[in-house]
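== Fold encoding ==
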Amino acid sequence: MIGGGRETAPIFFRIDVAKSLDAPGGALALWWKRLSRLPGGRRLFSLRVGRMARYTGSIGARIEELGPGYSRWTMRDRPRVRNHLNSVHAVALVNLAEVASGTAMLTALPPGTRGIVTGLSMQYLKKARGTLTAECRCSVPEVNGETTYDVHADIRDTAGDVVARGTVNWLLRKS
């Protein structure tokens, strides 16, 4: 017990969205900064993102790296994400591409700019099997009103082959 007989929650439950952070990805960046250095911190960060976006949490993806305009996530191949063809289901791949795009884009947005996904498209190039890695690199265009912007996320298998390529359409605007 700490602080006058009151128990404190573990650090990953006490990280609140700070209202003073101007950029929408500011809270994500703060969580990443605090958690990524801790033993098991990347797992805790991934679980936190999965709690914010519950459907995203259902695929069990794990963050590997995050920075403004860049993210890399992995997803293990397991029965829960497989289809009837014994490969990773198309919707799990879309979900993986979206979380890679979302974390990269949100951490890149400057203060006073907001973004929302307005469309997703996928190209399925090869049956997806084994541990998969989604990687997204993006920059933010100048936003002077409403701007649409496409962000791409490639999903690779353990051999390094691109198995799927996602295009995520973002609507950006000044807040």
Summary: Strands lie at 62-67, 70-75, 113-124, 132-137, 146-156, 162-174. The radius of gyration is 17 Å. The CA atoms of residues 35 and 41 lie 4 Å apart.
